[in-house]
Write a structure and sequence with these properties.
Layout: H1 5-9, H2 14-30, E1 35-39, E2 42-47, E3 50-57, E4 61-65, H3 67-80, E5 84-85, E6 90-93, H4 100-113
Antiparallel strand pairs: 1-2, 2-3, 3-4, 4-6, 5-6
Length: about 120
């Protein structure tokens, strides 16, 4: 979690900061092989040098970015969970619970789908 310390220190809203800490701590515990890092001023997790999932804070939601393939694969489940999404990110409202089951599926999908990927982003 140290790698995210500076990012978290810049978050003024205690609820938002706690949400990030909860999600990051859960990912680190559930997927200990992922590498936490800051790139493009945003926290993310990588596996063998390839992007798996990223996060950012917006006024009304936490943005979760599993790349377009992850959004496409889980679009129906994202909507079923009560979240909105674009082609590139999922919006988890600050006042809604995190669907950790869905988050786990998205991360596991990217780890598996990108197992042979040698680039940071999908081509």
């Amino acid at each position: 979690m140290e790698v995210f310390a500076e990012y978290l220190a810049r978050i003024d809203n205690p609820q938002q900061k706690a949400r990030f800490e909860e999600v990051f701590g859960w990912i680190i515990g559930k997927f200990p092989g992922l590498v936490p890092k800051i790139a493009w001023n945003q926290p993310m997790f990588t596996d063998h040098g390839t992007f798996i999932i990223g996060f950012s804070a917006a006024r009304h939601h936490m943005a979760v970015a599993p790349e377009r393939a992850g959004i496409d694969h889980f679009s129906a489940e994202i909507v079923q969970a009560g979240y909105e999404h674009t082609k590139e990110l999922v919006r988890i409202p600050w006042d809604s619970p995190v669907d950790f089951s869905l988050l786990e599926k998205m991360i596991a999908f990217n780890i598996s789908d990108k197992a042979e990927c040698s680039t940071f982003w999908r081509k």
